[in-house]
């Protein structure tokens, strides 16, 4: 009889465990990091930890190469087979939300109150995505270069003015010690242009689109401030300070091999530069009259509109917001932790760390790209205008044409709901 009771109890326990396992609901996730082993390992560890932490949900991931990811999401949306969890590039999120690819997150926003502003994906007054990291650009140089050229070392509190910046470039060129005074990274195309260069426009007082209405670029992309920016931009190349066409190898290694006095580059490249020199400086953006500006917003997590389990997908994203994961991403791929408390857990971004300045730059100077579904079109138009101007096009004509294209797209899409 005792044996029968034990057998019955064992069967009951086994049945209960099996029922619990079968009760778990699978959540699918798409991610852009295929091919990046370090990043993939961290994401998979978060998934493994989440799956083991509760009995309601099981996350399964499919990774895509970054270059093909956005197209895969668009195709998936059209085919009706989006996953539960997406990651999305911050400036693209409003377009995906407006297009019906995403739904608002169901997370406790108190948990992200201390996150860097650029990590929060807000559209139409609602939180759609959240990032575990951000990225920031600085003006990279060496203290020895500043000393040799007799230049003031700018600070976050007192960045260079536009005039000081141009004086620095002129002195670097006149020294004859460099192939070019400034590495702008023009070997890179696509999102680099609006991310890296529109902050210069915004510091002049212009913008890609009028953010007060989001219905037109008229006046902000072709007004006096924008034309002043365009003339300055064109002068960088006409006067021989920078290259309109750059060899990718020079972008990758030019500053570290002494070809440039200054480089406009991101924190993701900073460790390599620190390895090359022991007196590297990561300086704030120059102020052209309307404050120092740099870009903000990197990859973020969100829930697809197709998900039948948004509460589970949101639960996974909220689980991933732990400081230990933010720190792991930072240590693994070098990006800026989303919180100061996570930064304190890292070697590079803790107080006194070699990259701590980037957290401060992101906190103080970062400006998200225009928060509009039309950004995906406007970004490409802006890139073309800047490339044309760099190659000698008439500044006013190029900017007027850009405004016409952006405004036509906005009108065609009924002002994107604005």
Description:
- This protein is α+β, with helices and mostly antiparallel strands and 418 residues long.
- The chain is 45% helix and 16% strand.
- Strand 1, helix 2 and strand 2 form a beta-alpha-beta unit.
- Helix 7 crosses helix 8 and helix 15 packs antiparallel against helix 16.
- The longest helix is centred in the N-terminal third of the chain and has 22 residues.
- One of its GO terms (molecular function) is maltose binding.
- Based on CA atoms alone, the radius of gyration comes out at 24 Å
Number of domains: 2
Total number of beta strands = 15
Gap between N and C termini? 75 Å
Largest sheet: 5 strands, antiparallel
* CATH fold description of the largest domain: D-Maltodextrin-Binding Protein, domain 2
Secondary-structure arrangement, i.e. CATH architecture of the largest domain? 3-Layer(aba) Sandwich
- The amount of beta strand, in percent, is 15-25%
Shape: globular
Structural class: alpha+beta
Estimate the mean pLDDT confidence: 94
Q: Spans with pLDDT under 50 lasting ≥5 residues?
A: 1-21
CATH superfamily of the largest domain: Periplasmic binding protein-like II
